[in-house]
Amino acid sequence: MGRFNLKKKICVVVSSRANYSSIKSAMRAIDSHDGLELILLVGASAIIDRYGGVIDLIKQDGFTPNGIFHMLIEGSNPTTMAKSTGLGLIELPNLFERFKPDVVLTIGDRFETMSTTLAAAYMNIPVAHVQAGDKSGHIDDVSRSAIAKFSNLHFAPSLEACKRLKEWGE
What is the pTM of this model? Predict the structure, then answer.
């Protein structure tokens, strides 16, 4: 009789240096767990040398990306962020369809996280959000509360963030 892979596929999306530093220990834990399979997708500024060669650091740390995605438009202004979000919504569903994750683990509050969250949510893939409920005092706060509404699991970085999530109805 054939053997079935009963491992749960956890898809981690890394889109920046800050995202990687925040999630690296969770990636190690997922990768070393017998019941889990790490699916690693790397894109946005994490694949652009000018932003620190994060993909090279990821590989040096022993991880092999399963997929690479391009979504970043130069400019760092509201227009390019909105357009980059749209590109992420075009690119990420293809990768989610290809790898069929059981859960998508996303980090932070920026437009890259918004693309990841929306793509997974619309594809009925549960979303786990790291740094949920945090507060930074700018547009990222609006993104973070929207991401919380689309997420199924919330990993808050502090008691204050946990309280904020509860106030948002999460």
Answer: 0.90
